[in-house]
User: Fold this.
Amino acid sequence: MASPVPQTYSNHARWDPPFHFFALPVILFTVIAAIVHFVQRPGWFSAWLILFAAAIVVVTVKSRFYALKAQDRIIRLEERLRLAGLLADPLRGRIGGLTESQLIGLRFACDAEIPNLIDQALSKNLSQSEIKKAIQVWRPDYFRV
Assistant:
């Protein structure tokens, strides 16, 4: 099996083809088709199809967000444990000051960059994206979907 492409800020976003390129387009097309059907043949059943299609959109999007939120919580825990083992006492006590977003951004930083990045994140209130852009040596995460 070929080794994965080295991950960077520009290519770290993940696409899930069955979700992004099949399920979402089919669902969105169904909403459009239901609206067209209602315009051409107004009635209670056509209105019900629009409502049902909208409910499917909500269920699909919410289920995706629930999975991503669970991953974010795991990443937050994983990074707090990692930081507790890496940092010296003065900086270790500041781990609690990092936001969930900052912790998620820090997961891509190599161990050597962590102290400086945490100091910057806390003093300059860096966003997740700013933290990721500041990383010099990228630590890949190939498991997040």
About this structure: The first helix runs from residue 17 to 40. Helices lie at 17-40, 44-86, 89-92, 100-106, 114-124, 128-134. The chain has a mean pLDDT of 90.
